[in-house]
Amino acid sequence: MFVIAHGFTGDVDRPHVRRVAGVLRGYGAVVTFSFRGHGRSGGRSTVGDKEVLDLAAAVEWARGLGHARVVTVGFSMGGSVVLRHAALHGGTDAVVSVSAPARWYYRGTAPMRRLHWLVTRPEGRLVGRYGLRTRIHHRDWDPVPLSPVQAVPEIAPTPLLVVHGDRDGYFPLDHPRMLAEAAGGHADLWVEPGMGHAEHAADDALMARIGDWSVTAAG
Asked: If you average pLDDT over every residue of the chain, what do you get?
């Protein structure tokens, strides 16, 4: 069973989310859902903080369906969520994090500066609500949640795969390398030539490789 954690401004009805789910369906059952504040889901997005609870509920629901093995697969924001979920809640048999940040508050690229404007400015949150179907909470994190790189050492012995494109416009390669280093040799790191960011850039061939890795890693 795969539980898919989409990226920021995604939701279960987005074509790119449905596509990656369709590929993974060839390797096992798939659960998709929309994080809080995204698409038709209620509430407001906390951009990776409380979303860990959403993923925990989805994993619990998947277990309740009787599936003996559960693999979480997250993209970008969802990639950070699957790492933190595995560290804080456990209950998964393998974890795949694609295009995830290693640390919070990164503003080193133009897309991330635009994202911070979207999240922190009232006019940005209006764009999110009406232009991107994403309702963003106005409050700052308090306390600041465990960062992805802090979470990674707590995931072992659960198998972990970190995937990142060498043309990712949001997070440069120091992010996946930090995550892999924090795993202390426990994680597999795939740096994908020519790949951009998250679901849009994860083509069917890559998703098939992720499916193969997951089936083997989860037993």
From this structure: 96
pLDDT at 113 over 90: yes
pLDDT-above-90 percentage for the chain:
97
Beta bridge partners of 192: 165
Specify the amino acid at residue 140: D
* Cβ neighbours of residue 195 closer than 8 Å, sequence gap 6 or more: 164, 165, 166, 167, 168, 201, 202, 206
Single-letter code of the amino acid located at 54 = D
Q: What's the CATH number for 2-105+144-218?
A: 3.40.50.1820
Q: Where do the domains of the chain lie?
A: 2-105+144-218
CA dist., res. 177 & res. 187, Å (int) = 10
pTM for the full predicted model:
0.96
